[in-house]
Amino acid sequence: MSATTWSGQVPAALEEVDLRVDLAGMRLKNPVMTASGCAAAGRELDSFFDVTDIGAVVTKSVMLDPRSGNPTPRMAETPSGMLNSIGLQGPGIDSFLATDLPWLVSRKARAVVSIAGSSLGEYAELARRVGNSPGVSAVEVNISCPNVHNRGLVFACDPYQAAKVMAAVRRDVPRDVPVFAKLSADVTDLVTVAESVMAAGATGLAMINTLLGLSIDPVTLRPVLGGVTGGLSGPAIRPVALRCVWQVHQAMPDVPIIGIGGIRTGLDALEFMLAGASAVQVGTIIFHDPSAPIRIVTELRAELAARGFTSPSQVVGLAHTPTADSLAATDLEGLRSP
Amino acid sequence: MTTSAGPLQQRAEVLSLKRVGAYHHLTLVAPGVAERFRPGQFAALAVGGPESALLLRRSFSIYRVRDSGTYGGTVEIIFAVTGKGTAWLADLVPHDVVDVVAPLGRPFALPKEAVSCALVAGGYGSAPMFALSGRLLDRGCAVHMVLGASTESRLFGALEARRSAQSVIVTTEDGSVGIKGRVTDVLPEVLERTGSAVVYACGPMGMLAAVAQVAETHGAWSQCAVEEAMACGVGVCMTCVLPVIGEDGRTRMVRSCVEGPVFRGDRVRWSDVGTVPEGTLGAPSGGWPQ
Fold it and tell me: Scanning every residue of chain A, which has its alpha carbon at the shortest distance from the alpha carbon of B242?
């Protein structure tokens, strides 16, 4: 990526912008997807926008067996964010494959299926069943789950365990189906985990998952959430997520990255792409605005056009390149957000 | 795709905001909601404006809808100030804009025959009862209302109730108006006197549990609209779940936004709300630690 990809200061017309992207061999209509756990399996959001008009629907992490999830309260509002402790409630893979996936396929939506296991065996079994189901565009592997065979430690926090999951999944998913590892930022060195899952066969990375947090009730003087701790998401975590994308892209510029964390607007999506993401996922803001994914598609087009870009590929990782003299000399006040 | 049956999301202009006792009565211009609305459904409002740091929607039972007139369709809600989000709503002035999604959720089921019905509400849980009584009266049902609150200022719609029902009983816990006590103190007598076949209820969880029990004892069906904390209101966040027994006898953690907010009272495991009871579909064996 060089500074010459900056196509000049002349804004492009909206219709000149072609939002199609190639993400690890997947051709997407645009780089905006839903984030796992924030869109169920797409059906509820289809009342608010056409789910085929976004890049892809990433389904809520499915496990092998049905799962009740945690007791309530399961959420706590925090400044510009929320904590959740859902506990991976879900119907299990049989029901998912019989009901949820066929609906997405019949709608002709791009389906990226997120899987979650509590052991290597479960991940492998899920990979086999999901990978061989027609209509699955990609598999996203949620490795932020406790490993029952390793003192309940989360796979994503250990480069070795994370790699073992990815190797097990990769083995059972057909070669032409990309596999993304969803990374947690709650680690000492994210780049080490990223390198380790890529070496184990991941096609790309999705980052970041929620950050572990806590909220205490001022009346009961006890933790708010039934599950005590919860995952922090929303705009509050955006700078952390952006930093993660930046660091991993810097270390591994050729690895496809899906940027996730507090994206609220098209400008936020652009920021993630500038830091090195080839695509983005929109999560918690859906709770605030159920039509956010399609709004962000429209806004991203406008943000690209305003800066003279005609394709998202022109901005991926651009923030890592030195500022062009021509750009530095130009008055860009009108493009800075207030 | 958007269908005529589904909810609408719109940026709604505030038509009016009035104080009613301890509550606030908000009227929003929201064309199209009235045509889709059925009593018991709710509206989910974004709070704090476009740059809000409060991300979660606030959900309220719909009090009233109008399908036309000068303002081209309105939706009305009643709310109490309980935190930052509702405080923001209480500061709205006419012409402000609020992002609203409505109507949402499963409505009250209506009886096929012209039977006698008891409508029981606690606090501003009475809000959805007036639209409901209208539909019941249209079907030839007799409507009897029981409205309760801790004190007079926390009653909503006691006067309107007299125009909407064959009989009305008001209870307050402090005796400031009506009978001193709770709705369930008078409900058995109401059910015996009116022979009501269905009890409709809306209010705090503890009241719903007690009402469902009284209905069951008297052989009446109950339809209870729950108030669970919801992040999205549209079925994607999975926060508003409660344990409900299905047709197959199996307990599941179900979303009160899309599978409710109205549930059959005999299906909800009231005393287990806030837990995942043992035997729930997908529960860890031995249940969750309490």
Answer: A72
